[in-house]
Amino acid sequence: MNTSTNASANSSANASAPTFTSVVRRRAARHALLPLRLFLGLTFVYAGLDKLTDPAFLSAAGDGSIGQQMQSVRDASALPGLVDLALGDPVAFGFAMAIGELAVGLAVVVGLLTRVAALGGSLISLSLWLTVSWAATPYYHGNDLAYLMAWTPLVLTGAPVLSLDAVLLQRRRQRLAPAAGPELQGPLRIRRLQEEEVRGVRGVAAAARGVSARV
Q1: Where are the domains of the chain?
Q2: pLDDT for residue 180
Q3: Res. 78: pLDDT tops 90
């Protein structure tokens, strides 16, 4: 009786205790989108800075200018009206595009308002796909559609780890937590309940051992 009770208590404790593999998998899942987030953020920062520091790009006409690029894709784009709108003031459009890419990239890298920034990145990629990359054949030769798809997971999930959003969320939870403290909130509360359950099982096992020893 004593042996079976100990075995039951140990098996219950082992079942509830997280294993090294489960911990690694859980952390890997939480950080799964971090490489994608950093890639997209840094790429958009680079793209924005590249446009702002290129005098040829921020010109209405000439080789490499935003005006020339818009003229070259106008007839083959899915939204020629959008291209015409940009051609109304190509320099202002190019400047706005560069600032938008830079702002989106910086926000995504540091993880601040990540969902909003990712939505902005999606809209930029969508507009470029429907104008600049629309004529690419086959479609996968244009990279803007791939960027649009890559932004989607960040729009849905945001940046739950290694981000300012995560820090601000934790502080908000601490302010809203009851007197019992933030340790009772969310996953930590579940973990604490599991630990209490394990201690309860061990207490029952110890009591059973005492009874069996007396018998």
Answers
A1: 28-168
A2: 47
A3: yes
